[in-house]
TrEMBL record:
PANTHER family: MITOCHONDRIAL RNA PSEUDOURIDINE SYNTHASE, RNA PSEUDOURIDYLATE SYNTHASE DOMAIN-CONTAINING PROTEIN 1. Signal peptide: none annotated. One of its GO terms (biological process) is enzyme-directed rRNA pseudouridine synthesis. It comes from Candidatus Ozemobacter sibiricus. It is an enzyme of class 5 (isomerase). Residues 16-161 form the Pseudouridine synthase RsuA/RluA-like domain. This is Pseudouridine synthase. The lineage of its organism: Bacteria, Candidatus Ozemobacteria, Candidatus Ozemobacterales, Candidatus Ozemobacteraceae, Candidatus Ozemobacter. Belongs to the pseudouridine synthase RluA family. The active site is at residue 57.
Length: 250
């Protein structure tokens, strides 16, 4: 297996695990190349058989759950199927919304011409709802807190793009391939003889928090994942050079 990015255990119990998945690491094995590093195989090598409860896109970071027993798998999977798990993401987008809060209700279907990608399809799509709230206005960018109320593939990415607010980095849904300081720093000058290094070169989307019921005790539990270094650096530089405004009403 190829070398994998470093991952962190956020919470470990005999029947389930919460992992902070780094960007660049698959959640589960690739359908066409089993040699690609993935979190499922890495956890299996350490703990024995595990069950993925949900997935994150390869270039999305943050909290992901795995069960270690069949019963925990059933309990946790049921919560996701019934949409009782509260999933909270942080998303950095290009563009500025006209309101500070909102909800998107737009069904999604797979793209016919681009298999593996999704699109809004009002006629044939599956129901999909996403709640959002502005955390910071950052000049030409916006930092959102986003909660998908359904669990469709690429839901947040497609819904935000459909609002005209694609992730800052997301070439498949209208964002750029990377975020560079030269995009917003006034008077930026490139170093002689060298290219510019991106501030962040993966999806500007982070699974920050999960709230659910413990599969054994049924007590409410919350697991959070800190914002990764590349995301923090990008936000720091944007705040420094274009400023930050926070909505007054939450």
């Amino acid at each position: 297996m190829a070398t994998a990015p470093r991952w962190t255990i956020l919470h470990e119990e005999p029947d389930w695990l919460a992992i902070d998945k780094p960007a660049g690491l698959l959640s589960t094995p690739d359908r066409f190349d089993r040699d690609k590093a993935n979190l499922h195989d890495l956890l299996t090598a350490r703990y024995g058989k595990v069950h993925p409860i949900h997935r994150l896109d390869r270039e999305t970071s943050g909290v992901i759950l795995f069960a270690r027993t069949p019963e925990a798998n059933r309990q946790l999977s049921r919560q996701f199927e019934e949409h009782t798990v509260e999933k909270t993401y942080l998303a950095l987008t290009r563009g500025v919304p006209t309101a500070a809060t909102g909800e998107i209700d737009a069904p999604l279907a797979e793209c016919v011409r681009r298999p593996g990608l999704m699109r809004i399809d009002l006629r044939h799509g599956q129901p999909a709802r996403t709640r959002w709230r502005v955390l910071e206005w950052l000049g030409p960018f916006t930092l959102f807190e986003v909660q998908p109320l359904t669990g469709r593939q690429h839901q947040i990415r497609v819904h935000l793009s459909g609002m005209g607010l694609p992730l800052a980095v997301d070439p498949e849904y209208g964002g750029n391939t990377a975020l560079f300081l030269s995009e917003f720093k006034p008077g930026y000058k490139r170093a002689t003889g060298g290219g510019e290094r991106p501030l962040i070169a993966r999806l500007t989307l982070h699974a920050a928090r999960l709230r659910f019921r413990h599969p054994g005790t049924q007590e409410p539990i919350e697991v959070t994942a800190p914002l990764p270094h590349d995301f923090e650096v990008a936000l720091k530089q944007i705040r420094r050079w274009v400023g930050s405004a926070v909505p007054t009403a939450r």
